[in-house]
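Worked example (supplementary).
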Amino acid sequence: GQSLEQPSEVTAVEGAIVQINCTYQTSGFYGLSWYQQHDGGAPTFLSYNALDGLEETGRFSSFLSRSDSYGYLLLQELQMKDSASYFCAVRYGGATNKLIFGTGTLLAVQP
Amino acid sequence: GAVVSQHPSWVICKSGTSVKIECRSLDFQATTMFWYRQFPKQSLMLMATSNEGSKATYEQGVEKDKFLINHASLTLSTLTVTSAHPEDSSFYICSASQGSYSPLHFGNGTRLTVT
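After joint prediction of all chains, the assembly is encoded as:
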């Protein structure tokens, strides 16, 4: 089977740094993406790693280790608006861009 | 750029009726679109891949006769939930990308409630 595991909930305070981990087991792997979803809204794209290492996009960074089937999303200088669900997603369909999503992590940012 | 529009945003229907959901790529052409389903506080589950000009590809366990997908143009895919039942109540989200190696962009979703 295919699975992507994430912590279910994370709580942090404004201004802090938080890391959301993702471990995956999939039949194919062409890259790891991260999406943010506010309650009732659409998922929005945050970051993508096709190769090992760190990708930085503003306050958000994402890391991938293909040998460990592991990645994480790092959020810095947390703001209240960052309270949302975060999903990792593995692209496993090659050219078809099919994604399988992780279990999701609910991030609560407190003042 | 890369805007995906989904309509309606919410719909309430009676058991046994059918509901059509539209997904449009507004500023790009999408030969492939994807339909996801999400139950409250759960992850997104891929239902099917919509292919322009050909049959959709359904994921294991998804009934193709219940969830009819039509992708008649490069900017429009539709999902029809046929003979809806209360257990079909869910959040349905479509997605598309500008190319095979571009990020997926999602519509705002359709919240379906079957009474």
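Two points are worth noting when inspecting this output. The radius of gyration of chain A is 13 Å. Chain A touches chain B at residues 33, 35, 40-45, 48, 87, 95-104, 106 (CB under 8 Å).
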